[in-house]
Design brief:
The protein is mainly alpha-helical. The protein is built from 20 helices and two strands. The protein has two domains: about 190 residues, Glycosyltransferase; about 190 residues, Orthogonal Bundle (Farnesyl Diphosphate Synthase).
């Protein structure tokens, strides 16, 4: 079949001056094509993996139902990145504990904090009042806690899952950050010090699962009390999954090269004619028209162009609202549900297409983090003003204060995201779909942690990709 691609020729050549970013060439190129024939797990590895999996399952099931032992085991499985093998068992265990939950059941700070975090990660919005027993008459956290570093670290991780109105968790976060930083010089270069340093930069709430899994396996191995069965299973599972990801990347890279988009579409400035759709087969018309109907994103880009050429600085809220669509984040979140099978129902897609609050909060976090780390580079090449410049203009403050205030806004949008996670009816929108939105937010937190690692990926980004997609665990 010959495809009709009717275009509208321009009457005269228009010179367009395009501003380019100073982005370096791709670091990886065709590297992953080398894995196109990479074999999966062999028969021996598959048997070893299944045997270890059954051993771990037995350990999990045999642990007393309402016990600290089971809570710690679930926490370890999640941190080791293997909890996805035992989702039903973990849900049943946490559901049982939640149904008979009593905040006076435990008295230790570490135990209460881990229990609280696991419940909230599972979607149970338990009360934070249990932490009041660790405060004095003035509402401050007791001084005797400062030497209990493990407990403070667990409280720090738990406080990350706060929602609006939970002042004690706001105070807990400030208290724990201060105390953890003060504790580091006393811990030298111990395994606990490494964990604290990593947690201060990437708390569990923000961490990309596979990245943090690789780190935690190393931390867990250094722990003299580690369970060898759990450790061996986590290592083997990581390597098998890594090989699968390598093969998938090889397939995707090969597919992209075979498309030859650059060669096939050299005239990207040609104007497509909507009438050309009438010459297409019916099954292609909807795709063609959809490409021409990206009204929201085009409108937002046009608004940015007007601000830029008019040298206008919009109000910050205007900038944020307009900036959600151009980020492409809404499309990315929706597309992440493709291939999820029956769990991604039409009702689920209708829900995400309505731009629910959890998706809006996630999108704004992405936009603000991008602005914080890329606005200076964008200003050099003459892009439209970012939320940083907008805030400075709105309130007459310097860049440093604008950065601090925007960081506070990001924390508030995380509270929105946490709150909406608890509110969504999982009978309609299963948690596995919601986690796609949260995981995308985690990716953005990682990319914009120290630098804009998306265009400038030669540094930390390259090392992380090597660790999770290239180098197996020995």
């Amino acid at each position: 079949m010959e495809l009709c691609t009717q275009t509208v020729p321009a009457d005269h050549e228009v010179k367009i001056r395009r501003r380019f970013g100073s982005h370096h060439p791709t670091v990886w190129g065709d590297h992953f094509l080398a894995y196109v024939d990479l074999p999966g797990a062999n028969e021996g590895e598959e048997k070893q993996h299944e045997d270890l999996k059954q051993e771990v399952k037995k350990i999990l099931v045999m642990a007393p139902s309402k016990s600290l032992e089971k809570l710690e085991l679930i926490n370890t499985l999640q941190c080791l990145g293997v909890a996805y093998h035992f989702e039903r068992e973990i849900e049943e265990a946490l559901s049982y504990m939640h149904n008979c939950y009593d905040e006076y059941w435990m008295s230790d700070l570490h135990d209460i904090a881990v229990c609280f975090r696991l419940f909230r990660q599972q979607g149970y919005c338990v009360s934070c009042d249990a932490f009041r027993k660790f405060t004095d008459n003035q509402g401050n956290f007791k001084k005797e806690l400062v030497n209990y570093v493990c407990g403070i670290l667990s409280l720090y991780e738990a406080a990350q899952f706060r929602v609006h109105g939970e002042q004690i968790l706001d105070e807990a976060l400030n208290f724990t950050i201060t105390q953890l930083k003060l504790s580091l010089p006393k811990l030298s270069n111990s395994q606990l010090a490494q964990q604290i340093t990593n947690a201060l930069k990437f708390p569990i709430k923000d961490g990309i699962v596979r990245v943090e899994t690789r780190k935690y396996i190393s931390f867990y191995q250094q722990n003299q009390n580690h369970n060898k069965v759990l450790l061996n299973f986590a290592k083997l599972d990581f390597n098998i999954l890594q090989r699968l990801h390598k093969k998938e990347l090889a397939d995707i890279t090969g597919w992209w090269k075979e498309l030859e988009i650059v060669k096939a579409l050299p005239y990207v400035r040609d104007r497509w004619n909507i009438d050309a759709a009438e010459h297409l087969p019916s099954y292609m018309k909807i795709i063609y028209r959809g490409l021409l109907d990206m009204k929201k994103i085009v409108k937002s880009y046009f608004q940015e162009a007007k601000w830029y050429h008019g040298k206008d600085v919009p109000r910050m809220e205007q900038s944020i609202k307009n900036g959600i669509s151009p980020s492409g984040y809404l499309f990315l979140a929706t597309n992440s549900w493709l291939g999820m099978g029956k769990v991604a129902t039409k009702d689920a897609f209708d829900w995400i297409a309505s731009e629910p609050p959890i998706l809006v909060a996630s999108s704004i976090i992405a936009r603000l983090l991008n602005d914080l780390l890329s606005h200076e580079e964008e200003q050099k090449r003459g892009d439209a003003t970012s939320s940083v410049e907008c805030y400075m203009n709105d309130y007459g403050v310097k860049k440093e204060e604008a950065h601090m205030k925007i960081r506070n806004k990001i924390e508030n949008y995380w509270k929105d995201l946490n709150d909406e996670y608890f509110k969504v009816d999982v009978a309609i929108i299963p948690s596995v779909l919601l986690m796609r939105i949260i995981n995308l937010t985690r990716v953005v937190e990682f990319i914009y942690k120290d630098e804009d690692a998306y265009p400038f990926s030669r540094n930390s980004m390259k090392d992380v990709i090597s660790e999770i997609l290239v180098d197996p665990i020995i």
